[in-house]
Amino acid sequence: MAETAEAETQQVDGRRAARAERRAARLAKQIGAFAKAHGGAEGQVAYLGQMGARIVLVGEDGDWGDLVAPSYEIAESAARKSGITLHEAFDGEFAAKVRTGPYEWSRMAGIQVGGPSNAA
Fold first, then answer.
1. Which residues pair with 41 in a beta bridge?
2. Positive or negative CA dihedral for 7, 9, 10, 11?
3. Beta-carbon neighbour count of residue 4 at 10 Å?
């Protein structure tokens, strides 16, 4: 009986590992597509708690985007598979590469002054 429970546990663990591997491969493909479209890319992984992890991508052209992975480990695996450079933090030269446009500036200004309801 104990052997059956152990075998079932191994099957479940194997399925989870395979699912995580497939998810990392899909994310790596998306990261690769972003990098290709933007002349290369760099990234940073941020822990989001139970939600997982956010992969912030910055293209060589300054465009940026992000993806959410179900776990920090899957996010790191995807970034490694994609071949991008990962940064420890979103600061310094890496953050300076981000190009922001009018949308981002108006959005940030709206947040600072209480949102769109305060706009005249």
1. 59
2. positive
3. 8
Return the structure tokens found at 84.
């991008």
Is residue 63 packed enough to be buried (19+ CB in 10 Å), middle (13-18) or exposed (0-12)? middle
Handedness of CA 6, 9, 15, 19 (dihedral sign): negative
CA distances from 65 to 12, 18, 53, 112, 115 (A): 34, 27, 14, 22, 23
Q: How far is CA 2 from CA 7, 8, 39, 61, 106, in A?
A: 9, 10, 55, 57, 62
Q: What is the pLDDT of residue 63?
A: 92
* CA within 13 Å, CB half, 67: 25
Q: Is the pTM of this model over 0.85?
A: no
